[in-house]
């Protein structure tokens, strides 16, 4: 039994043939390449900045905490 390669004519039917087979391997390869490229770009550009911001914030918090501990005031 073979499947039809074109859609039946009628209102609302799309123009052109209906594919009976999908090349899933090429689709997967294309998507994988795009995802990997996006992750690499994110690691290069955004992750480094985010980590630096976290480190700077933690250093500021630690410096403030230590300055409070050095003080002689009673709270």
Automatic annotation (TrEMBL):
Residues 1-25 are annotated as: Disordered. Residues 1-10 have a biased composition (Low complexity). This is Uncharacterized protein. It comes from Cellulomonas composti. The lineage of its organism: Bacteria, Bacillati, Actinomycetota, Actinomycetes, Micrococcales.
